[in-house]
Design goal:
It is a single chain. By secondary structure, this protein is an alpha+beta fold. About 50% of the residues lie in helices and about 15% in strands. The chain has a five-stranded mixed β-sheet with strand order 8-7-4-9-10, with helices on both faces. Strands 1-2 form a two-stranded antiparallel ribbon. A two-stranded antiparallel ribbon has the order 3-11.
Length: about 350
């Protein structure tokens, strides 16, 4: 069984066919790494300038290179094992929702709370109790290998909290304050709104970020007094609904939001740093890619995106110590030499080439 590849003569521009492409012009690891890296930057198969080094290359051929590279890259759990990462024991759990041929599926992600690096991920048809339990069972050894599990930070999905309570009953689970604040901003946008909207939003945000439980209860009580006042009865119906939704959002999963008050030594920052973490990174890029056409392609391209995130250097982080470093570098590693070999090289795509070459 042979492969055939169509070539164009540089001298006379005639096309010809070569049999057996074992010595194909695309076999260069440097070229493949550069094509993959440029695709990850642009999130598009069009205008991959690197491919012009070997003549015009069509989108199908570029896609073949991407999928081939992804298959040859080790699973991220294998990479974690080779690096022998010592996780912080503080973990963030979240999901993002790409599209496959117009249908939404769930990408479940666990990241280290300190380094923002990826511990593991799972592609599931739905985000529910069964998928979260399957995912947590899959990564349990990674989460517990150092004997340290300080806390989990999550959104408010009941299925996730049920799975956590069953598998990690002694580890505190804290509701992410960033997710709660985003819910308030959905109810009362920052830009448009009258003075009451801004007042209700201000009180809600103060309650979410309250340093002590008594402060939270004070801000919530002010909102409840508004709701029980005669003035509330005179509010327009849309304003009443906003206030009711804000109070409902503050009360939903309130005990999980308050976990940090009972675990002060473990939980020093009850947010997932959502704006800088893996979930936001993937959501932006997957939206620009406009989803996926094939399930097999989706899994392989998501793997590339996660690799890209892990080796993508922070440049404008609000935490200055992160700038100039990629998430995988921010971990405590027992095998730093292996990471140095992966990162060795002068080009931005060197890490891809080094991983492909079996470094």
């Amino acid at each position: 069984m042979y492969d055939y590849q169509r070539f164009k003569c540089n001298a006379c521009n005639h096309f010809f066919i070569l049999k057996n492409t074992q010595n194909s012009r695309y076999d260069s690891l440097s070229l493949q790494a550069k094509i993959v890296f440029e695709y990850l930057l642009k999130r598009s198969l069009r205008n991959i300038k690197t491919s012009k080094a070997v003549g015009g290359v069509g989108k199908d051929r570029i896609l073949d290179i991407l999928l081939s590279v992804s298959r040859r890259l080790p699973d991220i759990t294998v990479l974690n094992s080779r690096l022998d990462i010592k996780w912080s024991g503080k973990f963030a759990l979240d999901a993002t929702f790409p599209k496959l041929r117009g249908r939404i599926f769930a990408l479940l992600i666990c990241s280290d709370f300190v380094s923002l690096d990826v511990v593991g991920y799972l592609i599931a048809s739905l985000e529910n109790y069964q998928s979260w339990k399957l995912f947590l069972e899959k990564i349990t050894l990674e989460l517990t290998k150092n004997g340290i599990s300080k806390f989990f930070v999550t959104d408010g999905k009941r299925g996730l909290h049920q799975a956590l309570s069953e598998l990690f009953p002694n580890v505190p689970a804290q509701l992410c304050t960033t997710h709660k604040q985003r819910r308030i901003n959905q109810i009362v946008p920052h830009i448009r709104g009258d003075g009451y909207d801004r007042l209700f939003s201000h009180l809600a945000h103060r309650a979410i970020l309250a340093p002590i439980k008594e402060a939270y209860q004070t801000y919530l009580k002010i909102l409840l007094n508004f709701q029980n006042s005669q003035e509330y009865q005179n509010y327009p119906k849309p304003r009443q609904e906003k206030l009711n939704k804000i109070i409902g959002a503050l009360r939903f999963q309130q005990s999980k939001l308050h976990t940090r008050y009972n675990a002060l030594e473990a939980i020093d920052d009850p947010t997932t740093n959502h704006l800088e973490g893996i979930n936001s990174f993937l959501k932006e890029r997957i939206n620009l890619m406009r989803g996926f056409k094939k399930s097999d392609n989706a899994e392989l391209l998501i793997k590339l995106l996660i690799y890209y995130y892990r080796f993508h250097k922070f440049t404008s982080s609000s935490f200055k110590e992160r700038n100039g470093k990629c998430p995988v570098q921010l971990n405590i590693l027992n095998n730093q030499n292996y990471l140095n070999k992966i990162l060795n090289g002068k080009t931005a795509s060197s890490w891809i080439k080094n991983l492909l070459s079996g470094t």
